[in-house]
Each structure stands twice: as C-alpha cells, then as structure tokens.
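Limitations
The structure tokens in this dataset are predictions for the assembled complex, not deposited experimental models. Users should treat interface geometry with appropriate caution, especially where small molecules or nucleic acid strands are included. An illustrative entry is reproduced here so readers can see what is and is not provided.
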Amino acid sequence: MPPAIEIAGLVKRFGATTALAGIDLRVEPGMIYGLLGPNGAGKTTTIRVLATLLRPDAGEVRVLGCDVVREAAAVRAQISLTGQYASLDEDLTGLENLILVGRLFGLPWRAARARARELLELFDLTASAQARLSAYSGGMRRRLDIAAGLAVPPKLLFLDEPTTGLDPRSRVQVWEMVREIAAGGTTVLLTTQYMEEADRLAQRLAVIDQGRVIAEGTARELKASVGGQTLHVRLADPSRLPQARALLDGNSPAGAQPVQREDMLIAHAAHVDDATALLARLGAAGIDVTWFSLAEPTLDEVFFALTGHGAVTDESEVTE
Amino acid sequence: MTILSGERSPHGTGSGVLGACLTLAWRALLRIRHQPFQLFDVTLSPIMFTLLFTYLYGGALAGSPRQYLQFLLPGIFVQTLLFLTIYTSVGLNTDLTRGLFDRFRSMPIWQPAPLIGALLGDLLRYAMAATVMVVLGLLLGFRPGGGVVGVLLAFALIATFCMAVSWAWMPLALRLKSPESVMAMGFTFIFPLTFVSNAFVDPATMPGWLQQVVAWNPVTHAVEAARALMHGEPVGSAVATTLLTGAGTVAVFAPLVVLMYRKELPGRA
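Predicted assembly:
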C-alpha cells in the first residue's frame, strides 16, 4: 500500500511571498496525522496543494500514490476536503447540502437522500435538517461540514482546523468523530494551532513554521526532544515571584529561562532530583509554595523550544 | 447505520458530466426557491423603466404611450434578461469567496460543472423575469402580433443569447474580490450595451456616429430579433446574427473561463 501522503521538497510561492519553503512529509495510511503551527505557517497552503487546489511550484506531491498535478482526478476521487476554506451552501438547508454533496460524489438521488438523513442522525443534526445553513451555530456547521466529507467515505480526509472557534463541548464532540472516522480505516490529516488538540488526537505530528517542517514524530517523541520535565510552582505570596524566579534561574537547561505565567512559575528540571532541589532552595529562602506539579512539557513548551518564538495561539484567544 | 458506509470508485468521475451539471442546476433552483426576493430586486428596475418610459416619453417618442409600448416592451424584455447575466457572475463570485468552489474543485466531478449548473439554473430565472415583463406589458396594453408562439420564440432566442453572454462576465467572477465589485463592474458594461442600442428609441433619430455604434452593438440585433418575433414580422438576418454573436462569445470566453477555473483560483489563504 502506498503512503497516504508523500511530499518531497514542496515549494509554493504567492508573488514575492514564499508560503512553503521545501516541505517534506510522509503519512502512513490509517492514522490521524497532525499539522501543527501558528497562523500563516503554511498548514492551509499544504492542504490546498494536497487537495489539488493549488499547483506546487517545485517538489513532488503524491496522495495515495497519485501525483496531485498529473493525476488530479484520481486524487479527487479518493479525498474529502472539509474545513474553513471548503464550505457548504449558506442558502441551502442541512439536508439539501448533504444531498448535493452525495450526488456529486456519484450517489443516485434516492441513495444520496438516504445517506444524507443517516449522516444528519449520526451527527445529531436531524432537528435542523430543514433549517438553512445560515441559521446554524458554529458547532453545528462544523459537524455538518465533516458529515459532508463523509457522504461517500474517502480514503483520505483533510480537516482544516476542525475545531477553531468551537466551544469546549463541541470540540470534544468533533474529536470523538475524528477518532471514529480513523477507526474505520480512513486516514485523517488535520491542521491545528491548538497544542492540546494535536496532543490528544494525532498519532504523529509535523510542526510547521514559516513554510518548513521543523520537527516530526509522535507527541511523546517531540516532548522528549526538549528533554526533562517541567516544574510548575505557585507561591503563597505572589509578590515574591521575581525573587523566586531569580533563585530558580541558573538551574534550568541552557536557553530555557524560568517563565512566569500569571501567578505561576515554570522551570525545566532534567531529573526529579533537580525539581526537589529547586523546591528546597525556595524553602530555604523562606518563600512558601502552596502548590507545585512536575509534568512532561506540553506541546506549547515544545513549540517554544523548537522555534524560539511562542507564536502558537493561546487556547483562550480563539481566532477565526 | 455507520459513520463510514459506502465506498468510492477509485477512479470514478463521481456523478458523470450530465449528472454533475444537473445536480448543480438543482442547487441553483433551490437557491431561487430559498431567495425568491432576489428576483424581485432584478425585475424591479425593468418594471420601473417600463412604466416611466411608456408614460413619460411614450407620447413624445411614438405619438402615444400605447403605441410606444409595442416598440419598447421587446427592448426592455431583452434588457431585463441581459441584466440577469450579471447576476450569474455575482452568484459564482459569492460561491468563490465563500469557499464553495474549493469544495467543488476538490471533488471528483467534471470541473466546469458548477459553471454549467449555474447557467442551467438561470433558465428558470430568465423564465420568471420574462413572465413578469410580458404580463406587465399585456396589462399596460402590449399586443404582440406574433401571439404566444412569437413570444415563446423570442424568449427561447434571448435566453440562449443570454446564456452565451453570461460567459463574458465570468472572468470578472473568477478574478474580482467580492460579489459587489462583480456587480458594479458588470453593470458598467451592461448599461451602455443595453442603452446604446435600439431598445428604447429608433436609432434613425440619433447622430450618424452613434447610429454606427448602435448598428455594431450585438444587443441591437437581439432586440430587433425579439421585436420581430413577438410582433410576427419578418426577422431578416437578426436571429442568425444574434445566434452567431452568442456562439462567438462562447467560443472566445468559455475556453478562457474554463482555463482560469481549472488553473488556480485566488484562494483566501
């Protein structure tokens, strides 16, 4: 079986801007693969090339063994593109939209209608079947969007930022759907700027920054590449944070300064021993610790370590 | 009932060429059904033009409003349908800017199907607008000598002509950034095209140089043909000229549009 996605040296320019500066990527069939990166990193451009919407300026791009330029029709026959850029018809109802997509994928009218009703049921949208899409909430719209991609199940499903702008409950619903789709054997390539999403959903990840893949592997591997663990400390008296920070400085790995985030202090610890030593030092200085935790670094922190800039959007700052 | 049921044919073309076009025409019909007021927008100005021209200028131009209406109505009829050709491109641009074309273009369908589907859906809009105009005319005293057959023939000819002319605006739909700019740009072309013709006044009253322009304007021939067909008069070469102009427009613009559509559309990324 050929890889689901095989990209070598992909370059894409828009005028003077280089959106993709030589992407290499390989995705094996049947997995959920995450493309992680900040806005403008090149995630969407990569998906648009894979979905035959953009032509590469250089490089080799194959989807399920087919070249995206020379065998575009064969690629289209096996993929579904969903997400913020491949939308549905605002003026049609949910049911009509699904029938439309089913028909275009080759289902006869009757089968397209039956499948549309089935998908509405599965995605918990039956009550809104006759409502026009313009009346749908963000979460409903996203579910319908994913449902449309499954009208006739593809071998490879592209999900472009499937949960951007969704509330936490809708986000969890979408995650469950994506897992179910992958369990059925469909390869899923999703883009996200949320570390948590990549961490929880994707079996493998590529971190993209400024049009290049800067790291690739499982979430665990990426975290291990940063080394050590992360110590989070909360103080009884927040006004002593700068003092505590100064005390912890010097015990972190090179390049990783202790970070202050709200009332919390975050420091790297190569071993558990280092962490206890750091806590002991705070105790010796008379700084009371009300809470601490020792954990693997989050992907957020990994991204920061990889790029040197924390461009990844914070979960609370949802951008559309 | 499962989330994944059914399977793609590995090299299938989805629903086939005809199937895709008809499905997308069905979508266009649904849009008309869900937005019936849009047609009202489109026919409002021709209705006003008809009333204004007939009663304000009718007496001066043709002796009486009723007499002028016999001359005017086929002209307004052509103009109304030609205005609709702009709305085709406005609709296509809406699809493009909303990201619908990205979905269509990533699907295993005959790629120009969304364009053809939109044109097929337009036939209903032409029919509805034409009905409004003819009924209005009949109420005001328009009496076409060619009868029902003459009016239907005129409709068939002008609808065909308009489907051809629609291709000329599609490059705007595929290049401009918003439906509003397609509308503005489209009407910049269509206004002089329809007014600098024989649709409203007999060109014999115009200065010589303008008569030349009017004679060259394809709309003039379309109006001449519609007028002759509606009134059951000899059509001369007008029908053939109209059809040839339409064919020429398609021959020039359709390949260009399909090329633009297939190549790469200005993405929103």
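Some entries come with short summary sentences. For this one: Chain A touches chain B through 51 residues (CB under 8 Å).
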